[in-house]
Every structure is written in structure tokens, then in C-alpha cells.
Specification:
Layout: H1 3-21, E1 25-27, E2 30-32, E3 38-46, E4 55-65, H2 66-75, E5 94-97, H3 98-101, E6 110-112, H4 119-141
Antiparallel strand pairs: 1-2, 2-3, 3-4, 4-5, 4-6
InterPro entries: DUF4304
Protein name: DUF4304 domain-containing protein
Amino acid sequence: MTAQDVYKELMRTRFAPWLREAGFRGSAGKFALPSESHWALLGFQRSVYSDKDEVRFTINLLCVGREQWESMRAAEPFLGERPTAAVYYGREVAQARIGALTPSGEDKWWHLRPRRDVEHVVADLFHDLGEYAVPWLRTAAAGYPGAENGNQ
């Protein structure tokens, strides 16, 4: 089993089910918190340096009002019908990497290797999702101030 296989298996059996239990919809590393007024997105990003021996990944968050997104699209026709958490759109959009929301504020990447215990990675990821990422997205989608402080 390669590191890529470990990542895919964890996404399917651990990460995605946890996020769905928290109210998200999605799969394959792209998730959305349902909201009629906002795009509230969470996306897993694998490092370009990931290979069969190691996968490094982080989590990107994005929240933008749907009306605001449509205004941005009208001004910039190349923008897609919906945003993606992995693209930086500028200061008008609340965006953060999960590490920026933690007390250290440092960029954070998890590392997976084949034939290594992954439970510490899973536990740390679930902690950061529950303590920082999900509350940040819920606050931003509710339109409360403060979420914009996570901008990259």
C-alpha cells in the first residue's frame, strides 16, 4: 500500500464521514457546509511533493456570500460558477488555511507514510477541524465579523 492509497482510504473511511457527521456535503477532498446565503467550503490540498512514499496535505477554507460571488463573476467572467477553497480570490473573500486559525498561526501540513501508524494524524486533524475549521466556517457563513481575520 502506497502513501497515496493510505490518503485515499482515510479520506473515504475517516475524514469524509467525520465531515458529513458535522453537516458537510461532498467527497474526494472537497466539502461544503450547506448555506443558502454563502459558499462555505473546505478543501484538502495535497502537496505537489507527495509521492508513493509520503503524502503531505493541509486544509483550505473559504467563505463568500453567494450574491458577492455573483458580483465578482460579473466583473471577472473567468471565475467559475462556484468558488474553490484552493484558489485565493483576494481580500473580498474570507479564506484561511487551517494552520492560520490555530494558536501558533503557522502553516500546517500533515504527513502520511505507508505502514506507519496514522491515528495520531487522524486525531490531530479531527481536533483542528472541530476546534478551528468548522467554527470558523460556521461563523463566516452566518455573516458574523471576525472570520475575515483568517485571510491568507
